[in-house]
Amino acid sequence: MRLIRPLVLLGFGLVVQAQKCWEKLTCTGPLESAFPGDWESNIYAPASRHVSPTSVLALADASLISAWPGPAHITGNGSALVFDFGKEVGGLATISYTTQGSGALGLAFTEGKNWIGLWSDSSNGRFQAGDGAIYANFTTSGNHTYTMDKVHLRGGFRYMTLFLITNETTSIDIHDISLEIGFQPTWSNLRAYAGYFDCSDDDLNKIWYSGAYTLQTNAVPVDTGRNFVASGWNNSGLLSNGSTVIVDGAKRDRAVWPGDMGIAVPATFVSIGDLDSVANALQTMYDHQNADGSFPEAGPPLLQQNSDTYHMWSMIGTYNYLLYTNDTAFLNKNWGRYLQAMHFIYNKVLQPSGLLNVTGTRDWARWQQGFNNSEANMILYHALVTGADLATWQGDTTGLADTYRSRAANLSTAINQHCWDGSFGAFKDNATDTSLHPQDANSMAVYFGVVPASSPSWSSSRAQSISERLTDNWTPIGAETPELPNNISPFISSFEIQAHLVAGQSKRALDLIRRSWGWYLHHPNGTGSTVIEGYLTNGSFSYRNSRGYSYDESYVSHSHGWSAGPTSALTNFIAGLSVTGPLGSTWSLKPQFADLKYAQAGFVTSLGRFSAGWNVTNNGRDYSLWCKIPDGTLGNVTLPPLLSGKTGKVIIDGKSFKNRSVDKRDGLTFEIGGGNHSIVVVSK
Predict the structure, then answer these.
(1) What dihedral do alpha carbons 201, 205, 208, 212 form, nearest 10°?
(2) What is the pLDDT of residues 658-673, one digit of tens each?
């Protein structure tokens, strides 16, 4: 545990005076949850926008001293107490205290328990050893109140260390600590979720809600982005227009990253439902599109460039946003720029291979990128397929949708021809000879349908082979990613769990969720409430440091939306409920039971509330499903095969489904309209 940094002496010019400058925003968010129920006990979001610590810890060994509120007294230079908020929080703290003597009250922050000390963990930059602290001077004895200035808003932390700097025999009595929450700025009720999930495994429930809470901490005021400074930290950068925007992490980088949104946005839709933040994030990417049609890798104030993959994630993000909102005004406004973006990236497809030639080599953190990289080609396939849907929704009459679908089909053929390693049973990292079979490309191949999982052709066996070979990378605490050795990336593992689910390997998917996300959920040095950016296979939080990076190990983000994959996966695949057309005009109910006894989930679109659930009964021989769907919609229901028994009779809304049944090998798929439905499958 890191404890002591060199103390900052008074008069050294680093003292920040108290300043109350947190602008109030008009709260226009939901006032109550869409699906009240017992599952709301799993919500980590606080009931108020003003929170206080839950306990006081000793600095030396992080042992519990007392609950808070309670007496808190520090005496002498360097003396300190650690205040634990019990979960990830972020915002501006106000401290009321009484002093005897003169000196300064220091404040330091950290997400992980192993980094508590007189020096904040690192958020400013990779090459800075921690962020230091902020200080409140006092020159006389008496009562004082200090409020953090907005520039030093701390976006994400669980632990706040208060310490004393003095040249005298000085003491401080802490009377009150209040933190004004800085995230989800337009919501007055932080627990007013638009979605829910509940199942028979309590850890999976907590993991679902930890992803949801992470996404809340990543929805921030648009003027609180990270600025790089020589020392300390400065969160006053302009991120986008509007009042709220989704960024990649609570503590850092606090910028729009479209690749992260590939996981974060579907999870946002099924949980908190905050799509205003998504719209503002996407719009800032369009507003900063380059003259050649390319998008930046990240939004302002970073505005990093040169990433073909993140360029395509902005395009895919456009599809996801339209799917969930049917915001045709947004699409109309940006359609011309979208077409420019597609032209830019598809011009890099070269003949005779028919594969994308990657020249923008920045990516999520993988060690290699470029040439005919298979991950980038999988993403392009998905961009073309979703682009075809966007063209249809846009009302294009020029045949653009057919063109995009034809290009996607040709690309799939090229990928399977040039990148498949038949001797290994998975895709190579590139069309050239290589021994690297990456987690990202292989997960995306199944998840995006480059190798369809439900076809009886060769592609089905390839999907099953990929699902099996991905487990070669598993460790007891998660899946090591071969393209970033010694590291575990919950971002890429979010794609892997969905690949297993697409392949029908639900037990395998839940196993990985429990290994990785379950490991962090119960880690004594974690936040106990959010999902981490990444970690090493040895169990340390030194994500990426094994590959020669020289940044402070405390730089890792413990509240990173790109790791929230289980939140959408559990809703879309385990409960089985997903939208397939704008706003849920068409939808799918295709549950997977795995080793669970029951599951249910719900979410909201402007059409109304969507919810569904299932129960396995009679020792696994029978099961029942139910759904409540807005009228005027059309659903595709797939009943799973029986867990035991020979055949199962199907009863829909109290009536027998004549001449249709399920057995241990085959399920049953049929269409059904919106409304309240019950389906019972009874084994014979």
Answers:
(1) 180
(2) 777 787 777 899 999 9
Separation CA 8–CA 59 (nearest Å): 18
Write down the architecture of domain 196-573 according to CATH.
Answer: Alpha/alpha barrel (1.50)
Residue 129 in this model has a pLDDT that exceeds 60: yes
Q: What are the DSSP calls for 331-386, one per residue? A: HHHHHHHHHHHHHHHHTTEETTTTEE-B--B--SS-S---BT-HHHHHHHHHHHHH
Dump pLDDT digits (tens) for 507-558. 999 999 999 999 999 999 999 999 999 999 999 998 988 665 656 789 999 9
Handedness of CA 119, 121, 123, 125 (dihedral sign): positive
Q: What is the CA radius of gyration of the chain?
A: 26
DSSP code, position 408: H
Separation between Cα atoms, residue 467 and residue 539, nearest integer Å: 24
Residue 534's Cβ-side half-sphere holds a number of Cα atoms within 13 Å equal to: 26
**What is the C-alpha separation between 217 and 213, in angstroms, rounded?**
6
| Contact (Cβ atoms closer than 8 angstroms) between residue 623 and residue 593 | yes
Answer whether 554's CB lies under 8 Å from 121's CB: yes
Does 576-683 carry CATH code 2.60.420.10?
yes
- Domains of the chain, residue spans: 50-181, 196-573, 576-683
Q: How many residues does the chain have?
A: 684
- Torsion, Cα of 314, 317, 319, 324 (10° steps): -160
C-alpha 67/C-alpha 461 separation (Å) is: 57
Question: What CATH fold (topology level) applies to the domain 50-181?
Answer: Jelly Rolls (2.60.120)
- Residue 465 DSSP one-character state: H
The whole-angstrom distance between residue 346's C-alpha and the CA centroid of its chain comes to 28
DSSP letters for 549-601:
--S-GGGS-SSBGGG-HHHHHIIIIII-EEE-SGGGSEEEE----TT-SEEEE
Task: Indicate the pTM of the whole model.
Answer: 0.95
Q: Say if residues 33 and 133 touch (Cβ distance below 8 Å).
A: no
How far CA 122 is from CA of 96, 156, 260, 487, 610, in Å, comes to 27, 11, 20, 20, 41
> Is 357 in contact with 432 (CB distance < 8 Å)?
no
Helix segments in 174-257, DSSP class H: 202-217
In the chain, % helix, strand, coil (3-state, to 5) comes to 30, 30, 40
At 147, the pLDDT band (50, 70, 90 cuts) reads very high
Which residues neighbour 11 within 8 Å (Cβ) at sequence distance 6 or greater?
none
Environment class of 378 (CB within 10 Å of its CB; exposed 0-12, middle 13-18, buried 19+): buried
Q: Which H or E run includes 633? A: strand 622-639
Other C-beta atoms lying within 10 Å of the C-beta of residue 194 = 22
